[in-house]
């Protein structure tokens, strides 16, 4: 990862409409939303209120009354993997969806209206990683960043970074900044010069049960303490807490198997 201060580069409330391509929301679809609400409520201090129901039961997670993420319910007859999915801002989701198709990606859901909140689509890149597209109306996205319990960064784990990065560059207009290190396959995605997300090529180290996928980093006050609490709540630690140049991180999974990363960022 490159920037631990959130996808919009600021700490605090983020009420403004995002520039196209900026990560603006994260959403999780699960089989048991009530238990999932209990888990993330205890872990991050989230409370929940109903959100748009176009794709089935859905709730927005709130931190001190500010929207930070969404959790919906998967259709009971479909045994799909659970995963946190980032949404990227768009001024025209129909045009973005068409560009996804033209560039070798797939649009699996939408574009469709989510009530008065906005318009959305779900797609996947040519390597198969799923992401969302959000055209804001009443709902602008995550309303607060830089605090424990808020999304801090989104990173794509894939086989090889450069080719997939070109896809995202064309679809969303990202500026690409490859890592100069010869031993690290990493591209930072930037909007207007600001780092907003990253692509990490890991080759054969990619988990076989998951394939290419986006990972969301959530800010915490203490990575080790949060990881221990997560285990007590029924989650799993996949990679123990360790220090990085950007903060202390631990890769974890919730009780349904959705992977994410705990981050105590260096300021």
TrEMBL record:
Location of the VOC domain: 22-136, 150-265
Species this protein is from: Streptomyces rubrogriseus
Name recorded for this polypeptide: VOC family protein
CDD domains: SgaA_N_like (cd07247)
């Amino acid at each position: 990862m490159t920037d631990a201060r959130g996808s919009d580069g600021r700490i605090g409330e983020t009420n403004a409409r995002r520039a196209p391509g900026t990560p603006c929301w994260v959403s999780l679809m699960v089989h048991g939303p009530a238990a999932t609400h209990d888990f993330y409520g205890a872990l991050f201090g989230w409370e929940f209120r109903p959100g748009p129901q176009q794709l089935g039961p859905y709730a927005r997670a709130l931190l001190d009354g500010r929207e930070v993420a969404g959790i919906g319910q998967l259709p009971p007859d479909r045994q799909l993997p659970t995963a946190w999915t980032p949404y990227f801002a768009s001024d025209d989701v129909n045009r973005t969806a068409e560009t996804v198709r033209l560039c070798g990606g797939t649009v699996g859901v939408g574009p469709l209206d989510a009530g008065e909140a906005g318009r959305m689509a779900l797609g996947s890149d040519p390597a198969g990683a799923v992401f969302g597209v959000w055209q804001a109306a009443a709902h602008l996205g995550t309303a607060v960043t830089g605090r424990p319990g808020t999304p801090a960064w989104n990173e794509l784990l894939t086989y090889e970074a450069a080719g997939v990065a070109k896809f995202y560059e064309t679809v969303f207009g990202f500026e690409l900044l490859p890592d100069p290190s010869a031993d690290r396959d990493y591209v930072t995605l930037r909007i207007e010069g600001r780092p907003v997300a990253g692509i990490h090529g890991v080759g054969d180290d990619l988990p076989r049960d998951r394939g290419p996928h986006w990972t969301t980093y959530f800010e915490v006050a203490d990575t080790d303490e949060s990881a221990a609490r997560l285990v007590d709540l029924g989650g799993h630690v996949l990679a123990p807490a360790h220090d990085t140049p950007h903060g202390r991180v631990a890769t974890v999974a919730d009780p349904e198997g959705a992977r994410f990363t705990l981050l105590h960022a260096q300021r």
